[in-house]
Amino acid sequence: MAVIASEAVGAEIPQAYPRRAAVVSWIFFDWAAQPYFTLITTFVFAPYFAGFVAPDPERGQALWGFATAAAGLMIALLSPVLGAIADASGRRKPWIAGFGSLLVIGACLMWFGKPGDPSIIAPLLLAYAIASVGVEFATVFNNAMMPTLVPPDRIGRLSGTGWATGYIGGILSLILVLGFLAANPDTGRTLFGLAPLFGLDPVSHQGDRITGPLTGIWFIIFVLPMFLLTPDYPAKRPIREAIREGLSGLKRTLGELPKRKSVATFLLANMIYTDGLVSLFTFGGIYAAGTFGWHTIQIGTFGILLAIAGTFGAWLGGKLDDKLGPKRVIAGSLLILLLALGTILLVDKDSILFVKVAPPAPGGALFSGAAERAYLVLGCLIGAAGGPLQAASRTLLIRLAPKDRIAQYFGLFALTGKVTSFIGPLLIGAITYVTASQKAGMALLVVFFAAGLALLTRVRE
């Protein structure tokens, strides 16, 4: 157990840090949680819901957006309170266990989302919202453990390693689903040409639906090392006192922000472009399903390629960060995202940038259409830009925030990344619903990235 100094200079500073095994076990939380974002919210279950559970892809995208927005609103309302509890009360693991249970329960209930059953839509969206709240709040308390694990000058490296580990876990979970569980309804074979394991029925999309229970089981197995080997903060004060003290500290920090204009401007920019990035990843698979009629294998393969591009982009972005500075890396990433997104909006099943191309042949090879390949390249650009955008944002915060209160500002950084996370999905859902156009809903994201870039230009390192 890490030894904690008592109220040293107004902050609690670990005097000793746990063994390497404890740190590695903490990192595996990202590995445990990432399949929820990879399998459920992006590449497998969300497109399946839009394409086969909802009445049509447009209404499916709208309904998924509304459910995402509802969960995001609850996260936004409760994040300040729970963040204050994490800082002031001490113990994190009981909260991680409680919210992790919500993730497991909500994810497992997704198995019952049978195709073409209107009666299951509302319960399925409720299960998705519950699981989303669970995984986000479990992540909040898990992140709050970071200052007790490594010295302050290694927190960024620890965070980056967890991020990369999560990417790899997401890739492997996708390979598992595509190669062994989810089959093409037409051929009855998985991406590896195999019959699905456990006799999963391709016609009723059991391979898509199994991603829910798989996500829950995966989380339970891989989060166990953290519970067993990573030391928790010792309990410091009763919960009521912790809430009162934590919120008081948060209020003081927020009151100082107007005096720290660059920090405040950067946090606002981060809030806006993070909302856009989360929305883009949430709806990218759904948009592809509606535009090209992609099924699980195509979308999942697309997801694997995006994750690989993201891993490479994060590595290259770290190199450029050292040479050019984080602000330039963030600006470059936002420009790439704007270019790729703007081009995607001009790609359709039978056209690229207003030039007619042959549509994909029915039953043809994977990504046989020219427009599909163009979407694939543009998606990889988005994946490659998303990693350095998030990594360099953490680096820039370290340069801007007061050195003696870096942990508190990282908490505020996490809060701004979540507090408006419901706005993007809500607006995309609403615009898609009103216009009956997926393209119109996705076009909104251009505004998010452009506004974030405009604010970033006013930040001074």
Descriptive notes:
The chain is mostly helical and 461 residues long. The protein has 17 helices and three strands. The protein is globular.
Topology overview:
Blueprint: H1 20-43, H2 45-53, H3 57-89, H4 93-109, H5 121-143, H6 155-181, H7 206-209, H8 211-229, H9 239-256, H10 261-292, H11 296-324, H12 326-344, E1 347-348, E2 351-352, E3 355-356, H13 370-400, H14 406-419, H15 423-435, H16 438-443, H17 445-456
Helix pairs in contact: 1-6, 1-8, 1-10, 1-11, 2-3, 2-10, 3-5, 3-9, 3-10, 3-14, 3-15, 4-5, 4-8, 6-11, 10-13, 10-14, 10-15, 10-17, 11-12, 11-13, 12-13, 12-17
Features:
461 residues; mainly alpha; disordered N terminus
Describe the structure in brief.
The protein is mainly alpha-helical. It is built from 17 helices and three strands.
